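REQUEST FORM: STRUCTURE PREDICTION
Request ID: SP-0412
Submitted by: Lab K.M.
Chain count: 1
Length (residues): 142
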Amino acid sequence: MAPHGGIPVAEAPPVLVLTRYSVPASGAAEFLAAAHRALDALGAQRGFRGGWVGRSADDPDLFTLTTRWDDVGSYRRALSAYEVKLVGVPLLSRALDEPTAYEVLVDHDGTASVTAPSSRAADADTVSLGHAAAPDVESGPW
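STATUS: Completed
RESULT:
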């Protein structure tokens, strides 16, 4: 790690994936069992650093499944694994429809902070799915 303004800088930022679920009290036991299975499947994948299930202290019907990954590629590849598709994706598909993957830009272990530069592409705010990474692209014969 190289210093950056006196704060160590990590080489590549880890990724935090936070999915939220609205689960009525009658479905809490089923949700927790499914979350355990999903964590087991995700935990077996390369790049998995850890995960947990949480429940809101303010709204008992709101749960989270949070996982931590080496990088966004590890997380995306994990979603393609057979076991994750079998037991994880059915649970993940019930998540609230909102962004779920976050770069960890500052990490504090209780003693010191480590910062990481963003790994977002330079054109991430101007190019979206289905668009070429150029300002003007002609249509092809396809």
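NOTES: The chain has a mean pLDDT of 85.
Reviewed by: T.R.
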